[in-house]
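hey
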């Protein structure tokens, strides 16, 4: 009897030590993600068609003396950097959230057509209604995101097997193609709108200004708070519907609130910087590789890693064809496409 008690105590100690090690590793990962974001912000402020030394950047931030460097920093790079942080955080958390809600590692706001729907909402508001304010565009973007997400899920749910990961990816690709075709047609029919939106339509931080963050910031903040409030029911949902109900999770409420958070985040981010793809796909995978499937850690890590990825992509786009620029959306697509292919191939290997 004493041997069994000693064995049980030893097992508990091992479990406690393992949990403590996991917590320490995750805490270090969060601190590392914060450091990485700091590096990305510093590069975003210092690097461009005209690169500035970090002491110059720091001086301009602390003393806005009206110099050329100060104007570049405050009028161009600070709004651009803040927009990248806000949009990256929104897309990263939206990607982690939609993957958790669908239990589909291939789910992504861009791949499921949500971003394309949001972009179409913005284009429709401008071409049909003549609405050009960013604040109004956010609402149209969220409406388009909701419609596209529901259509993609409905298309994938038809037939046997329901909405499998592969069907969701294919259905989302179809919906994204349709919505993209609609928005591109509308822009081509109006030369003025095309000129106004041609850079935005591929995803770019270059047009962000001082009003961008103040306009979309409240929407993104509300979406992030709502997403973080769902971490416990999302962890229960990962165990399956029956187990989640047994643990007291309200599945319908969790899914409705999760969809509301995803559309709010994607609508606000898309209206601000355009329909960026693959950020919401790759970042949650990196977060899970580091911290596991616990949403208490996956969502915060996605919130920190996604802005870093977006800012690094923006910086790379500034220097790779200097003095011209590649839009951040082009860079994330070039980097993200191989990641998506690798994920699909990995799923096939595991399934076979």
């Amino acid at each position: 009897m004493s041997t069994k008690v000693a064995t049980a105590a030893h097992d508990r100690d091992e479990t406690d030590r393992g949990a403590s090690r996991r917590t320490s590793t995750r805490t270090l990962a969060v601190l590392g993600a914060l450091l990485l974001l700091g590096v990305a912000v510093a590069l975003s402020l210092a690097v461009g068609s005209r690169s500035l030394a970090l002491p110059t950047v720091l001086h301009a931030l602390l003393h806005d003396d009206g110099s050329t460097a100060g104007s570049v920093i405050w009028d161009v790079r600070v709004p651009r950097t803040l927009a990248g942080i806000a949009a990256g955080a929104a897309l990263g958390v939206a990607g982690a959230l939609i993957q958790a809600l669908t239990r589909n590692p291939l789910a992504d706001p861009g791949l499921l057509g949500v971003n394309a729907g949001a972009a179409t909402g913005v284009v429709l508001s401008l071409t049909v209604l003549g609405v050009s304010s960013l604040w109004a565009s956010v609402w149209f973007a969220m409406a388009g995101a909701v419609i596209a997400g529901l259509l993609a899920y409905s298309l994938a749910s038809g037939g046997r097997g329901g909405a499998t990961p592969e069907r969701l990816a294919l259905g989302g690709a179809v919906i994204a193609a349709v919505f993209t075709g609609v928005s591109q047609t509308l822009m081509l029919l109006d030369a003025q709108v095309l000129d106004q939106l041609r850079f935005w339509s591929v995803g770019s931080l270059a047009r962000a200004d001082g009003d961008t963050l103040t306009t979309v910031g409240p929407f993104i903040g509300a979406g992030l708070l709502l997403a973080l409030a769902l971490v416990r029911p999302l962890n229960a949902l990962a165990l399956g519907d029956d187990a989640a109900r047994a643990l007291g999770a309200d599945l319908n409420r969790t899914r409705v609130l999760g969809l509301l958070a995803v559309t709010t985040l994607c609508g606000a981010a898309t209206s601000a910087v355009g329909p960026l793809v693959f950020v919401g796909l790759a970042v949650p995978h990196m977060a899970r590789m580091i911290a596991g499937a616990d949403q208490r850690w996956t969502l915060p890590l996605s919130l920190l890693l996604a802005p870093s990825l977006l800012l690094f992509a923006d910086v790379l786009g500034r220097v790779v064809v200097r003095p011209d620029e590649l839009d951040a959306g082009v860079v994330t697509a070039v980097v993200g496409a191989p990641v998506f292919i690798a994920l699909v191939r990995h799923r096939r290997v595991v399934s076979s």
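Residues 119 and 275 are 6 Å apart (CA to CA). Residues 2-46 form the longest helix (45 residues).
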